[in-house]
Recover the amino acids of this structure.
């Protein structure tokens, strides 16, 4: 038994050392050198200070959303809510004549639809550009990337006219199409490079075994490039969820507004007054989904960005 344990330790030790070396190589070189040159206590103090600097605004937002009107107006402000209440969240259904929860639903529908469509189109197009090479495929890819250089604000007027011609102006469907158009180039960039990083022998073996192209894409390629798919979905979700300019220009009915536009109207106030508690509650509704989704999928996001950008 002792010999078996010794042999097991001998086999696992190289694996552990290899894993630690790979993790050390994955860490950015500048941060690695800084950490080596600092005492451990000083390093953790700096990290703690940075964490407080990033988290304190979120803490202020949440505490303001849980305070009553009287406590919100106190000077100096209180650090902790003395009488926490959810009244500010319940007021969102009718603050300044706006139905924030209805506009939140609009944001959810538009964001999910734009994310799903962008992921599907970017995956199929990225696979075609990476595998099904054709004359001019590289030119097509770089032409798509060139759209990054065109400011979105510069084409909002032509987009408005196109949607008006198609009868999609002032509609959530038209806004979804605009979001897909805006997010597709970068999603295609990520997915094309993710597929290009996969050895072609895996796909060839699947085709030899009798799989079709779509079957090989679904069962062989997609599991491998899943970090790229999740990265594309996350970037599209965040961009569509927080987008303000296009929604402000393309939507005119208040019942079709998305959440960022509605919160801007709440910020402007009514008769010179601003309901800060309701405003912070609305901001909390905007931020919390993004934080939860990013925390759950961050490891896929980091690996997907590296695979998509380093090829």
């Amino acid at each position: 038994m002792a010999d078996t344990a010794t042999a097991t330790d001998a086999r696992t030790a190289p694996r552990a050392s290899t894993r630690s070396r790979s993790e050390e190589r994955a860490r950015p070189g500048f941060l690695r050198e800084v950490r080596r040159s600092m005492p451990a206590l000083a390093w953790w103090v700096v990290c703690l200070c940075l964490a407080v600097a990033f988290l304190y605004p979120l803490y202020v937002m949440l505490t303001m959303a849980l305070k009553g009107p009287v406590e919100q107006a106190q000077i100096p402000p209180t650090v902790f809510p003395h009488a926490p209440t959810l009244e500010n969240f319940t007021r969102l259904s009718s603050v300044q004549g706006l139905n924030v929860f209805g506009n939140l639903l609009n944001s959810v529908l538009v964001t999910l639809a734009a994310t799903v469509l962008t992921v599907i189109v970017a995956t199929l197009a990225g696979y075609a550009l990476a595998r099904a090479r054709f004359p001019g495929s590289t030119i097509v890819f770089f032409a798509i990337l060139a759209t990054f250089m065109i400011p979105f604000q510069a084409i909002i007027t032509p987009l408005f006219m196109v949607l008006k011609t198609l009868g999609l102006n002032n509609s959530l469907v038209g806004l979804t199409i605009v979001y897909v158009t805006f997010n597709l180039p970068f999603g295609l960039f990520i997915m094309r490079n993710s597929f290009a990083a996969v050895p072609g022998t895996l796909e060839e073996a699947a085709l030899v075994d009798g799989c079709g192209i779509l079957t090989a894409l679904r069962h062989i390629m997609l599991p491998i490039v899943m970090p790229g798919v999740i990265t594309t979905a996350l970037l599209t979700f965040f961009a569509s969820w927080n987008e303000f300019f296009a929604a402000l220009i393309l939507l005119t009915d208040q019942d079709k507004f998305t959440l960022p536009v509605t919160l801007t109207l709440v910020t402007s106030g009514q008769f010179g007054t601003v309901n800060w508690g309701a405003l912070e509650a609305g901001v909390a509704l905007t931020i919390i989904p993004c934080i939860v989704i990013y925390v759950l999928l961050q490891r896929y996001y980091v690996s997907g960005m590296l695979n998509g950008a380093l090829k």
Remarks:
- The radius of gyration is 25 Å.
- Residues 276-310 form the longest helix (35 residues).
- The chain has two domains: 2-91, 94-310.
- The domain at 94-310 is CATH 1.10.3720.10 (MetI-like fold).
